Amino acid sequence: MSRIILHVDMDYFYAAIEEREDPSIKDRAVVVCMYSNRGEEGGAVSTCNYIAREAGIHSAMPCRLAKSIKPDAVYLPVRKEFYTEVSDRIMEILRSYADGDGELFEKISIDEAFIEITDGAGGDFDRAEEIAKRIKADVKGTEDLTCSVGIGPNKIIAKMASSRQKPDGITLIRDSEVGDFLKEMPVSKLWGIGNVTEEKLSEMGIETVSQLAECDVQELIEAFGKTRGTWLKMAASGIDDSPVKEKTASDQIGRMASLIHDTRKRDLVMSLLDELVVDVFGKVRGRNVSFRSITVTVIHSNFRTITRSRTLSHPVAEKEILLDISHQIMDELLDSSTLNLRRIGVRVGSLQESKGQKTLAEFF
Ligand code: DCP
Ligand code: MG
Ligand code: MG
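ok -> structure tokens follow
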């Protein structure tokens, strides 16, 4: 059975958040600028909305140039912390759809992530498309932002598919369609190929992905070394076995689980929460780390996801604290809505190695 992987990328992310915060600018060109320490003159465009893109403005362009092209656009400074908060909430929503209780999830930048849904979709690409629609509706309903989704049998294909129809699109590439999808693509479009590789391939007479796929692997290995050469051949052939796995997973330990049936009965919810806490704490112990943040997630019967976190003043590794704070947060979450819960999760983050520190109990 083919894997099914989604890649989600938010549309004109920073500028879309600014539009949402101030709807009066929605019909105008909006440009978000990263000003350097040289002030407004030295800045570069972080991103812009699609109206500004039609005028020729794009990321990394000097702001001064953008202003000369379109003096009547709205220019706003980057508010990275604010966008990060929005991103964190979106990532929680996306994670809640991933197989393995949210384990098969990989955030790759502030506005994009891979979600494996092979099991969730029962291996069926049509069902995967329905899930993609639900995710888009969920993100739109919760954060009032749109995203584009690529669906494919592996990460490379999913990633390239998501940029096919932007904004607000879904692009589905089945296993059997991978060859056609890649065929006439220039090598520069293959995810993972940068300018240097592109130039080197061009010198070898390779311009398209299909040319690369047909190239003798030995020739690629001679030019790029074993690992990279083999990877190029595989990627161009649409083969990518790399797992969906959080790179920063080392900084978080969490678990999610479904309630036996949708409910908001406190004792049922808390007893599942306790099981999850015990499990998470076991892993904390196993890795000999302390944590500084605690996050509880609930997914309501209508699939709406809500997340709340607490950051402690210093790292701890105490089960009682984890239990206590998880309960507090869960009580708040139960209070905040009358809907039944479908799934719940608990996660600790901001991990630090416990350097031989012992808890009080271990001294006796
Ligand atoms: N970003 C940045 N500087 C860049 C590229 C991006 O600061 N050179 C920031 C701003 C973007 C965010 O990262 O909003 C996400 O990058 P994307 O490449 O996904 O671009 P957008 O989401 O803005 O647009 P698109 O709709 O094309 O995805
Ligand atoms: Mg984006
Ligand atoms: Mg992106």
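The pocket of magnesium ion (ligand 3) is lined by residues 9, 109, 111-112 (CB under 6 Å).
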